[in-house]
Amino acid sequence: MAAKQAATLAAFGTQHIGRGVARSTEHVWAAGQGSWMHSMDGKKYLDFTCGIGVTNLGHCHPKVTKAAQEQCAKIVHAQINIGYHNPAITLVEKLLPVMPDKSLDTFLFVNSGSEAVESAVKLARHATKKQNIIVMQGGFHGRTLATASMTRSKTIYSAGFGPLLSGVFATPFPYEYHYALAHGKPQSSSLSDACADDALAALRLLLKQQSAPADTAAIVLEPVLGEGGYVPASARYLRGLRDICDEHGILLIIDEVQSGFGRTGTYFAIEQANVRPDILIMAKGIANGFPLAGIASRKELMDRQTPGSMGGTYSGNAVSCAAAVACADVMQTEGILDNVKARGEQLRSGLSALQSHAKVGPLIGDIRGLGLMLGLEFSRSAPASIATKVQKAAHDRGLLLLTTSVFETMRFIPPLTISEAEMKQGVEIFGESLKAAASS
Ligand SMILES: Cc1ncc(COP(=O)(O)O)c(C=O)c1O
């Protein structure tokens, strides 16, 4: 009965929900609890997607749910142009101490990652009085018109939507696995340095040949490419970027929409390179599923903006901010970063163990990432569409996984609260799925 009802609803959805939104399953989800999602037809799935890196504290974390419920009963929409509300102010108090640099002391809250990226670009252009923006090849910044123009992870985000935002230039991202393949050498620390140096040299060339520093407002990047394949940038590269920005009066915008809020083992991934962003972009994990995003920058830059020029009707919604305050408390009190470290190591070693398996080992090209933001790229000898086949095989065995990028890559984004037993189960299912897909 429930299965029939679910199938009817899904068919109705297919008929009436725009085709531009893709789905990796046709489930109608009924509930989510911790690391698990429950479909309307009574099936249960271990969630290694977190709704694309959002429900970092697990589905419906009781403290986050309670905070949102209580705020709903107080005031839902305390519009930001009409005054302050307590959850937003409290959230700023919680965020200030965890910013990757003390200079990031002023905030703007919006509704989505894309809107936050657009706000960062507007801030950079307005503050520097310069126009051009440099992005990374493989970078993803959203689906609005400006952010689609800045996205270089797949052409589907921009194809057919032109003319796109002008003044956007792309520079190569230091993709170590591909660099090693191109050079016919195994990955090593000296090759990592060479990869970073080559990417920095390409950027310097871009600033000489295509976008003069005097016209360049900002360089925008994800410290770990998300939709571009879960590829971390080395500290050497990120420090080199900072130097180039300082040399030329260019702002460094760090997009931590996917990598932020503990996902990589530190509050923000950029901390691990000890690099100061001029503007930090946040979303997803900030409120564990409630729509909230934001930017942080220094007051001196933010205060150049004309009052009324930023924000929007729903910016910094009170319920979302209350949920975000609860998330910040959970991060502090429930040992989340320690769990990311332990479970990240468990996941990495589970995936690495598969590399020694006679049949599937040679299919695994690269295992990479930080904390619980890990990617597994298949080798060039793997069968066509292997990532999608593994994703399907995993689903059939009760594990939700996502692929990423135009290369054959799986991404692993389990909840930061995942238990040791759940991780063991997820890794086992992944191994079985890989073996099944390899022999299909
Ligand atoms: C790094 C990054 N930036 C920006 C965005 C866009 O965020 P949203 O989908 O909330 O607009 C995403 C979404 O996945 C992202 O991963």
From TrEMBL:
Q: Which GO terms describe its molecular function?
A: identical protein binding; pyridoxal phosphate binding; transaminase activity
Top-level taxon: Eukaryota
Name the UniProt key words of this record, in alphabetical order.
Aminotransferase, Pyridoxal phosphate, Transferase
Q: Name one Pfam family in it.
A: Aminotran_3
Q: What is this protein called?
A: Uncharacterized protein
Which cofactor does the UniProt annotation name?
pyridoxal 5'-phosphate
Q: Which family does it belong to?
A: Belongs to the class-III pyridoxal-phosphate-dependent aminotransferase family.
Instruction: Tell me which species this is from.
Output: Geranomyces variabilis
Recorded hits in PROSITE patterns, A to Z, give: AA_TRANSFER_CLASS_3 (PS00600)
